[in-house]
Amino acid sequence: MPNTNDKNTIRSLAAELAEIASLPAQEQKRGMWRKLNGLKPDRPMVMIDQVCWNEMNVNDELTLRCEDPECRGYESFMRMTLYQWKHFRVDMVVEPFIRVPKAIHNSGIGIGPKEDIAVTDPTSGVVGHAFKNQFVTDADLDKIKMAVVSEDKAETARRLEVAHELFDGELGIFEQGLDFNLSIWDPISALMSVQDACYALIDRPEYMAELAGRIVRSYMSMIDQTEEQGLLCHSQSLIHCTGAWTDELPAPGFDPAKPRTKDIWMMGLAQMFSTVSPAMFDEFEVEMCMPIFERFGLVYYGCCDPLDLKMAQVRKISNARKISMSPWVDENRGASEIKGDYVYSRKPNPAHLMSFHEDEVRGHLQASVDACAKYGCPLELILKDISTVAYEPQRLWRWAEIAMEVVGA
What is residue 284's DSSP assignment? Predict the structure, then answer.
């Protein structure tokens, strides 16, 4: 069990979080996310995620004081949450519980990347990757294995015992199951390199279809096992980096002891398909992944991949609800394609935090608001992939203020 100093540190932070979590503003914000996700928003919503925390520490607000690694994990999460609430809360929600991950072993597809890494800032987790191609021959296809999922129940029980010792009386305990990112092309790009994968799509389309199909089958088996063992997540607060609160999930018949995929959101994406044709996107991504999409309650589709020219294909995903509009889209074209049928999930350009000019930031955000107003799109502004703020965290604080002014908060 944690030592006295660690426990006191954790409980002090938990008490601060509990006080914030009890504010009426939390349920008000959940309600606003539900309206947005129901395509009837009060106003555009704003979220900030994937922050360069290595550049954020001010006045030791993020300095860890616990000794035990498990306590340090909880401490880090709570300090970052409190910091964000203080400095750039935008439309975040602070939940009245701590998520404790179940001890789940997932073999995945049986193979991981081989790569060389380039580091420019040793304090940052953002690094360069040079991936090595591991799929050249027909025999290499056999490297893809069927996933095996299992739980170490004793370890799950131990984690819960520690969490109750730390948080009882301050915050609730939420036993957290698996929340999937089920992209097939992000892993393929890391197993082959983007360049080699793109050439293979042109030169060896049958080979690439077989590779992708094997990954899909492994994913489907992984989902089956996770559902059967009651290891799936539920009651999501976020889907990727955006608010997941909705009145439409879970589905009728929901049992929290055995959540189903139809009770939750999933995220789909094919970032390396940014430059392929709509026809290739349709064949190798939409149709290939449709068996996965169809299993889930709602789909948040896209990430950094520009989708303004591929909406006809995205529309085939009947349960899609939010569509990412990355920094590389034509905003008006994207808005004219989405209209009021989906949430326009705009990803403002995080590069504006590197060379920070307030008028440029404001104009960039206003263009999104104007495009969505013109075409009747429900809008969210999701600032993510923040690699650097040039070690000036106040830039992010000010970005948050400008964004909330632009959306009329």
Answer: I
In this structure, are strands 379-383 and 45-48 parallel, antiparallel, or unpaired?
parallel
Query: What values do phi and psi take at 104, rounded to 5?
Result: -105, 130
CA pair distance 4, 182, nearest whole angstrom = 41
For 333, the enclosing helix (H) or strand (E) is helix 331-338
Q: Residue 336's pLDDT is what? A: 98
pLDDT computed for residue 1 by the predictor: 75
Closest to 169 measured CA to CA, from 17, 6, 26: 17
Residues 216-256: tens digit of each pLDDT: 999 999 999 999 999 999 999 999 999 999 999 999 999 99
Our measurement of the distance from residue 144's CA atom to the centroid of its chain's CA atoms, rounded to an integer in Å, reads 25
Strand segments (E) across 201-356:
238-239, 242-243, 265-268, 298-301, 320-325, 343-346
Which residue type sits at 162?
Answer: V
What region, left, alpha or beta, does residue 40 occupy, with left being phi > 0 and alpha being psi -120 to 50 degrees?
beta
Rounded CA Rg of the chain: 22
Q: What percent of the chain has pLDDT over 90?
A: 95
pTM over 0.70: yes
Q: Which amino acid is at 332?
A: N
